[in-house]
Amino acid sequence: MSEPSRRQPALPAEPAAPLPLVTRWTLLVLALLSLALGVIGIFVPVLPTVPFVLLSAWAAARSSPRLLAWLESHTSFGPMLVEWRRGGVVRRRAKWAATAVMGVSAAIMLVVVQHRWVAVLAIGCMAGVLAWLWRRPEQFSDEAVPPET
Fold first, then answer.
1. What average pLDDT does the chain have?
2. Which of 30, 75, 83, 104 is the most exposed place for a label (fewest CB within 10 A)?
């Protein structure tokens, strides 16, 4: 009797060549600047938080594993980043929060901005972002959906 053939585990792909130093520093500055803008966006209604945090994580993944690890283990940003990376998931609570903040921002702009076309253009952009956002999945495809009652 012959011994069953064993499959050899696939070898890991060659690690990507390290980025040039200037590129890594540029990406690190982008990550830090984006993170700063995201944090400011928590307090300023017109400035979005999530896109800047996502951009920060993307740049950190290519320039600073330590910053990426900090972002992913952060109590506020971490779960959102992990869910986004696993499948582009945006929870319903985050969608409603974004909708509310953008609605308040739109109302403020309609009152404060002198040139109506600027406010309308910004509100149109927010509407486009919201249309895209609400089309994102709210849970992973492997999560059980509770039965309807």
1. 82
2. 75
Do residues 92 and 138 make contact, with C-beta atoms less than 8 angstroms apart?
Answer: yes
Amino acid sitting at position 45: P
Measured at the CA of 143, the angle between CA 141 and CA 101, to 5 degrees, comes to: 80
pTM of the model: 0.66
**Contacts for 42-51: CB closer than 8 Å, 24+ residues apart:** 45/101, 45/104, 45/105, 45/108, 46/105, 46/108, 46/109, 46/122, 48/98, 48/129, 50/80, 50/94, 50/98
Which among 23, 4, 32 is positioned nearest to 62, based on CA atoms?
23
What does the block give as tokens for 149?
Answer: 């009652």
Q: What are phi and psi of 16, to 5 degrees?
A: -65, 145
The pLDDT of residue 143 is 59
